[in-house]
Amino acid sequence: MNIPFLSLREVTALHGEEIREAARRVIDYGWYLQGRENERFEQDYAKYIGTDFCVGCANGLDALIWIFRAYIEMGIMSAGDEVIVPANTYIATILAITENGLIPVLAEPRLNTLEIDDENIEEHITARTKAVCLVHLYGRNAYTERIGALCKKYNLKLIEDNAQAHGCHTPDGRKTGSAGDAAGHSFYPGKNLGALGDGGAVTTDDPALAETVRALANYGSQKKYVFKYAGRNSRLDEIQAAILDVKLKYLDEDNAHRKAIAGYYYENITNRLITLPDRLPEGQNVYHLFPVLVSDGRRDALQDYLAGCGIGTVIHYPIPPHKQECYARQGWNLPQLQLPVTEKIAAEELSLPIGPAITMEEVKVVVECINGF
Length: 373
Ligand SMILES: *Cc1c(COP(=O)(O)O)cnc(C)c1O
What we know:
The two termini are 17 Å apart. The protein has helices spanning 8-14, 16-29, 36-49, 60-73, 91-98, 145-153, 207-216, 238-249, 251-268, 299-308, 340-348, 360-371, and strands at 53-57, 82-86, 103-107, 129-135, 157-161, 182-186, 200-204, 221-223, 226-227, 274-275, 290-294, 349-352. It is α/β, with parallel strands linked by helices. Strands 1-7-6-5-4-2-3 form a seven-stranded mixed β-sheet, sandwiched between helices. The chain has a three-stranded antiparallel β-sheet with strand order 10-11-12. Strands 8-9 form a two-stranded antiparallel sheet. The structure holds pyridoxal-5'-phosphate. Pyridoxal-5'-phosphate is lined by residues 59-61, 89-90, 92-93, 135, 161, 163-164, 186, 188, 198, 200.
């Protein structure tokens, strides 16, 4: 038996004919950037997320970089300002902050949700705090009413990293990506809404922010050959926009399949070494990944054992951002980097196979192997 962690070939094959048709349409039309495919996808995705604007860009990291950069260009943030962010995120969230000369202030997650602990945010707020950057990690909603209220009370921008949570809902029934002031989305192939290459987008209700992001991602230009900002080339290919528009139609269906797989894991994993994160209320988890925590220092042994059964797993993520070499000499204003929850998650987390193409038969085998460990 061979059960890969995620087979992109199988994922693409689910809607293969329509995807090829969309790509062929763009190839034959002969217009490859900034055209009708981007326009259509941006409209459809904004409608799906529930925001007034969507601006496509080159990838998810850029989407986040452009949000912070736009706030700087708009005079709302400036170098040295602080952004509160969960310590247990993928490095891209942190890179988007440091790339702009802003300072990431790392907040601990909760062990039972794996998301930022909303009781841990207020103590990090200083006179220089300008934003909270939420990450809906693993496809799990991280927004709480309390976070929304804190941002209002202290006049902070609420930015969402929605790279892993396309289609997820907040407790008040909005889509993640529409809960704050702006959100960055990634369409990296393995994400719930994945392109066949790189892609990203910013969603927001703020017209000035949308306009600034659009300019920044197009060399800083709003008018041909006139450059308002020193931007970059960070655009979404027409071919990817066309493919994303096809896959967007099936996103809810694909997420429902993920949910069924996750339900089987929740109901059938009985190995006492394994702790599953809290099962969130309906709609608040789109199961981008299925993380479990493995106790007694047995995580790597379980991963090896499953590999021996032909089952692929991945650790998200083995080294947290504050332990990465790229930040070793940055002199972050974080003298007492005591992040035991984040470090425990890095030491114990293992992601089990999940996705729109894995079958229930395969998942049953995964559970049997896990329970036999
Ligand atoms: C994938 C991801 C990103 C970055 O997206 P890319 O498109 O790969 O640049 C950012 N944040 C999180 C949480 C991610 O998982």
